[in-house]
Amino acid sequence: MVKTTASGKMDKRTKEYKELKARLAKARAAKAKGAAPAKPRLKKTAAGKVDKRTKEYKQMAANMAKARRAKGSLKNRLKRLFGY
Q1: How far apart are CA 70 and CA 73, in angstroms?
Q2: pLDDT, tens digit only, all 84 positions of the chain
């Protein structure tokens, strides 16, 4: 049974509370250590579209253009035709 204060909250002076806080801190540290790095957020305009002046947009546009070119390539056309 965890000791509570008059307002009903856990008493921070108890051993149980301190153990609980230690476990939570350990779990947070483990989660932060194992978490994948966050993807870079794309800067957006007021309208909500991706800002075309950024390095990320230019890279994204180049990748899309490369994919469009590859889609129409002879090699990929043959793959679609013969089902590879």
Answers
A1: 5
A2: 778 889 988 889 999 999 999 999 999 999 888 876 767 677 888 898 888 898 888 998 999 999 988 888 888 888 888 987
